[in-house]
Write a structure and sequence with these properties.
2 strands, 131 residues, mainly alpha
């Protein structure tokens, strides 16, 4: 769940990058502005869901943590490319937009799961955190 804070920083970087003229750079890299907006939405959603997961004790569920970490890694990878768009290969921006949209759908499923408290052998995750 430490990645939650990394993604929060990523969102802030994306917002700053977008404010500094993505549209100008977007002329040279078609689709970049859409990638920034899609990734920003994905990262914001991730942050909310990760916070809910922590609050409901899901950091004790290895599968959920692994899923969230995988999504965080993808967001980090996309962000690295956004900061240095010259590293993108032809067609990669469109593929990343598609990937970000797919991950948004996966996050919806995770959100449903982590909205309830995690139960550890007869106690909830929040009970375990209190001990």
């Amino acid at each position: 769940m430490k990645k939650f804070f990394i993604i929060l920083i990523t969102v802030l970087m994306l917002i700053c990058f977008a404010a500094c003229g993505v549209s100008e750079i977007g002329e040279e890299y078609p689709g970049l502005e859409k990638l920034v907006n899609t990734t920003k939405t994905l990262a914001e959603s991730y942050n909310g869901i990760a916070e809910t997961a922590i609050n409901n004790g899901w950091e004790y569920d290895d599968e959920t943590v692994e899923q969230l970490n995988k999504i965080a890694d993808v967001i980090d990878t996309i962000n690295a490319g956004i900061v240095a768009p010259e590293t993108f290969e032809e067609g990669q921006i469109e593929a990343l937009i598609k990937n970000a949209k797919e991950l948004s759908e996966e996050l919806k499923e995770i959100k449903t799961k982590v909205s309830a408290e995690y139960e550890i052998e007869g106690m909830t995750g929040t009970d375990a955190a209190a001990e």
